[in-house]
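[Meeting: bench + compute handoff]

Bench side (C.D.) handed over the final construct sequence. Compute side (W.E.) agreed to return the predicted structure before the next meeting so the bench team could plan truncations. Sequence as handed over:
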Amino acid sequence: MSHQIPPQNFLNYRNWRYLWLNGAAVLGALLAYFLLEPVGGHHGSSWYGYSTGVIATIGIAILMWYGVRKRSYSAYRTTLQGWLAVHIWLGTALLLLVPLHSGFSFGANVHTLAYLIMVVVSRSGFVGASGYLSLPVEIRAHRGQGAMRALIERVDAIDAELQRVTTDVSPALASMIAEFDSPRPSSAWAYVVNAPPRAIDRRIAAERIATLNEQDRERAGALIAILDRKRDTLRAIWHDARVLAWLRLWLFLHLPMALALMLAVIVHIVTVLYFV
C-alpha cells in the first residue's frame, strides 16, 4: 500500500527543517541551563543570561524582518513559505528561550511585560498562520478553485440569464421571481454582518407554483432552479467574504502587538544597560 505524501506547507517546510533546527537550539539552551551554573546563579545579568538575551533579541529582529520580506519582490534565495516557517518555529522557540534568559524570574516590570507581549504576538501569529493554512482550503473546496471575482462574475451571468428568460413573463410569475430572488448586498461589510441566503424551500416553492396558471407553471420550475443556483453562489461569496474579513481583522490586531513588542524590547534593553 502506498502512502500519500502530505503537501508541503509553512509548518512542514523542507521536512520540518525549521522545527528541528529551533528544537535543537532550545534543547542546547536547556542543557546549558541545567549543566552550567553561572556565578550568582541564573539571572538576566549573568553570562548565560546575556548570551541567551542576545540570541533572543536577534530572533525577535528576524521575526520582525518577515514583515519586510513578504513585501519584497527582489529576494530570490529564500521563499516566502520558508520565511514563514522560520517565523512560526522561531517565535515558538523564543517562548522558552526568553524565560531561560531571565532564569525564570518574572515580576511587575517592563521585562515581564515584554515577555507577555511576545507570548501574545507568538500565539496570535500561530493562530493567524493556521487560518491562512486551513481557511483558504475551505474556500477552494466549495468553488472549484475559482476566485472571488469568478464567483461575482457567475452571479452576473445568472442575473443576465434571468433577465433574458423573464422578459415576457406574466405579473404572477414575475411576483414569484421577486419573492424567491436574493438581492446582492450593497457593500462588502453587509456580507459580514448579514445572514447569507438559504436554499429555496422546495415545499414553499411548490405551493407557490401551484397558484400559477398552467403555462406559468411550466416555466416556474426552471426559474426556481436558476434562482437556487444564484443563492448557492451568493452563499459561497458570503463565506469567502467572512473568511477574508476574519484574516484582515487578525492582521490588524497582530501587527500593532508586534510593534508593541519591538518597543518593549528596546525599553528592556535600555533599562538593563543604563539603569541596572
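W.E. noted at the follow-up: Residues 214-275 form the longest helix (62 residues). C.D. will use this when planning the next construct.
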